[in-house]
Amino acid sequence: MQRLLLILGCLLIAGAVAWPWLSKLPLGRLPGDIHIVRDGFSFYFPITTCILVSVLVSVVIWIVRR
């Protein structure tokens, strides 16, 4: 458990340091992401981004377990 928390903490710090570069990636603005704007209401659901991130995480986990 300690090792997992240490790794997650390091990943969180690395993500925070890399945020200026990560924010320039088109994640969240991909074709297929749903964005509805009405008067006084805005709804955004990044379905394509969620699928892409899920596939990438699954591949990484599969490679690590091999």
Structure description:
- There is one protein chain.
- With 66 residues, this protein is an alpha+beta fold.
- It has one domain.
- The protein contains 3 helices and 2 strands.
- It has a two-stranded antiparallel sheet.
- The model has no long low-confidence stretch (mean pLDDT 89).
What's a quick, concise take on this entry?
The two termini are 21 Å apart. A hairpin with a 2-residue loop joins strand 1 and strand 2. By secondary structure, this protein is an alpha+beta fold.
Set down the secondary structure blueprint:
Blueprint: H1 2-17, H2 19-22, E1 34-38, E2 41-45, H3 47-65
Antiparallel strand pairs: 1-2
Give the strand tally: 2
Sheet of most strands: 2 strands, antiparallel
User: How far is the first residue's CA from the last residue's CA?
Assistant: 21 Å
Structural class: alpha+beta
Q: Secondary-structure element order, as H and E?
A: HHEEH
Helix content: 55-70%
Over the alpha carbons, how many angstroms does the gyration radius reach?
16 Å
Report strand %.
15-25%
Estimate the mean pLDDT confidence. Answer: 89
Tally of discrete structural domains? 1
Specify the overall morphology: extended
Identify low-pLDDT runs: none
- Strand order in the sheet with the most strands: 1-2
- How many H/I helical runs? 3
